[in-house]
Amino acid sequence: MKLRHTWRPVTTALILIAASTIFVPQAAAAAPSPNIKYEFNGTTADSAGGSSLTVLGACPVPFIDPSPAAGGQCNSTTSYGSDAAGDYWRWTSASPRGGGFTITTNSPLTNTYTMALKFVFDSEPVRTYSKIIDYAGKISDNGFYFDNWVINFYDGGDHLGTTAYSAGTVIDLVITRDQTTQLFTVYAKSSGGSLEQVFQYTDTSNTAVPVSSGSGSLIGFFFDDDDTDDEGNDGGRVYSVDMWSGVALTSTEVAAYVSSTAGQSDEGPPPWLQSYGRIAGSVCKPGWHASWAEWATSITGGWVCNRTIFWNGSSWVQNPNVGWGIANPSDTSSWDGS
User: Fold this and answer.
1) From CA 122, how far away is CA 168, in angstroms rounded?
2) pLDDT above 60 (res 6)
3) Composition of the chain by helix, strand, coil, percent to 5
């Protein structure tokens, strides 16, 4: 049983603030492909074929809170959808132990692994703790939590990040465990693709090693264990789950993975630079920016008009003044396709 903490003021943040070096994904070695991959684009199938997902059963109506030994983890509703952060699977739960799903791997995840998880809780938990990942088949209070909206791994003691999230913030985490060093490391990814180390601790008791199930491992997501009865969440959305069995990605490989996924569901398709030729010194059409281009042909170059079309998360917009620099456009107008 965990000791309850005094409520702390919550500081809204898009990512957890790291106490260590920020790793920026530039010139990073390519990360290996995960052998378990869930994209939740209308299905709960593992596109990599390395596991199976089981959605928790439906909550009874009306819901009657069971005794601590009787379980009670369940989903009131489930659905698929899409928003600015990508495709998702959504759940709600009337149970104080929460809802969600389990993943059973075809072969052991092992005591060395990497896990990437992108999700959001819809509301603030009424309890101090709210469980994110269960490693022990619901029989232990240990596991991965929010604690007053701060990321926390609990193994009889707390291992905490430093800054709290607010309800509705999309959480994008990468977790590694290396049996050689027994280091359990948590990274947070920003929407722009940068990476920070949230915290790291030495898991000498193997608390972060998933329990065996058949020929593989069992991992639970978003519901509380049977050791306590009130540390679930009312619901949320999950966008992706990736796992690497037997592989603890290095910080460089994690950065490469983050870089490869940035701009897909988070930021949309790559920008589109458009150009047309013009007479030297002539004025461009409205919405276009005058420039000069060096052609990759036998022709040496010429005067052009440019504009950039890019996705802002909900619609296509154009910005004639930024050229190739798309990072933070400020003067945009909607694009009508012309």
Assistant:
1) 5
2) no
3) 5, 40, 55
Of 227, 261, 295, which one is at a domain's C-terminal end?
A: 261
d(CA 93, CA 71): 14
Distance of CA 226 to the CA centre of its chain: 26
58: DSSP letter: B
Helix (H, G, I), strand (E, B) or coil at 196: strand
- For residues 103 and 219, the answer to whether their CB atoms sit within 8 Å is yes
**Which tokens in the block code for residue 6?**
């005094």
Tell me whether residue 10 is in a domain.
no
Q: For the chain, report the end-to-end CA distance as a whole number of angstroms.
A: 63
Q: Is the pTM of this model over 0.85?
A: no
3-state secondary structure of 121: strand
Under 8 Å between Cβ of 303 and 280: yes
| CA 213 from centre of chain | 25
Question: Is-contact 222 99, C-beta < 8 A?
Answer: yes
Answer with the residue of higher pLDDT: 188 or 55: 55
Confidence at residue 270, expressed as pLDDT on a 0 to 100 scale: 53
Task: State how far the Cα of 266 lies from the Cα of 85, in Å rounded to an integer.
Answer: 5
278 in the same domain as 204: no
Residues 192 and 284 in one domain: no
**From CA 49, how far away is CA 126, in angstroms rounded?**
37
H/E element, 34: none
